[in-house]
Amino acid sequence: MSKIGAWFNEPEFNRWYFKWSLFDWIRAGIAVIAIKLIQTIPFQNTALAFLLGVLAVVIVAVLFGVRQRSTELQPLITIQSPAGGRVPLFKIVRGCAHPSPALVQVMILAGPINDRRWFPQPDAEISRYEWRAKCRFGDQSAPATGWEFDFCAVIPRTRITDTVKDIPADAIVSQIIHVSLDRGLPDEDFP
Description:
Distance between the termini: 33 Å
CATH class of the largest domain: Mainly Beta
Helix content: 10-25%
Radius of gyration: 27 Å
Shape: rod-shaped
Mean pLDDT: 79
Largest sheet: 6 strands, mixed
Number of helices: 3
Structural class: alpha+beta
Low-confidence stretches: 1-17
CATH topology of the largest domain: Immunoglobulin-like
CATH architecture of the largest domain: Sandwich
Oligomer: single chain
Number of domains: 2
């Protein structure tokens, strides 16, 4: 990759001026016009010129930079399939995430009613904005049908390796899907 191409991939390239809305550009234009108008007035009084300069700075600040602006895109993750219903013991869960994450995990909520825990599944395979993960709903001792599970996809800050009572608060979480186990369905595997 060329030096210029590498520069465009650097985080510094994602500057505020690349993320302005049309309204931001209009405010910038108004601020520039106000400063140009003040510059065209002939001044004999230095104090008056100074006060109008301060006024121009205040106009720019009010129109243009006082409000706090979020420059980072908020990550988003969704599950596309399954959307609910019955699942086999092993099922491929698919979804999308934007921007493309480094890590996606599917978490399955299972256990007795008063002690339900989230069970992390193996890391998802990620291809640009799409991901897929082979998930296990239950175990070999599960009855043929009837066990119910909730599951979601997460973009965690750090890999979740053990079962947890609650998903970490700093993780980005998809919608929660409710499914029931049907051992009569054939297990799925990656092609």
